[in-house]
Design goal:
7% of the residues lie in helices and 33% in strands. It is mainly β and 150 residues long.
């Protein structure tokens, strides 16, 4: 279980509230998601007014900035990632209000591929505007392969 010092400044710690990532009974999926195994990917904020449906694996700031700007994001608010050691996996839906949101379940490098599995689930608070799942994971070589799971 993470502690307040484990979390970046943008993650809300709201003791006793259902969307607190540290102590709420149902962690809000758009804050932090810890994965099994040795990976501890961090869900990154993606606050852009016009997201476009798609799946991406960013291995450079330029790649991420290109999509960020295509989604209408302010360049000054681009999430900071150490691309020397990390890469970013993303699942987006088109701009709008949704009763479900994409949630990346796991990221695995194997046999020349980086496999990203995701599902759509109902967030604690619904509907949500412009839901996205954006996680930073350890950098790995391989061709990205995204799979939606039930």
């Amino acid at each position: 279980m993470p502690t307040p010092s484990d979390l970046p400044a943008w993650v809300p710690h709201r003791p006793g509230r259902p969307n607190c990532v540290l102590c709420g009974p149902k962690a809000f999926t758009c804050a932090v998601r810890w994965f099994v195994a040795d990976q501890h990917p961090l869900l990154l904020p993606w606050f852009c007014p016009r997201p476009i449906n798609g799946c991406h694996l960013f291995r450079s700031e330029l790649d991420m900035a290109t999509i960020w700007q295509a989604h209408g994001g302010d360049r000054a608010k681009l999430p900071v990632v150490d691309f020397d050691s990390q890469m970013v996996a993303c699942v987006f839906v088109d701009a709008g209000e949704y009763a479900v949101a994409p949630v990346i379940q796991d990221v695995e490098a194997q046999d020349g591929f980086v496999r990203v599995r995701y599902r759509f689930s109902r967030p604690v608070f619904s509907p949500v505007n412009n839901p996205a799942s954006v996680v930073s994971v350890p950098r790995s070589p391989g061709v990205p392969h995204f799979t939606a799971i039930e």
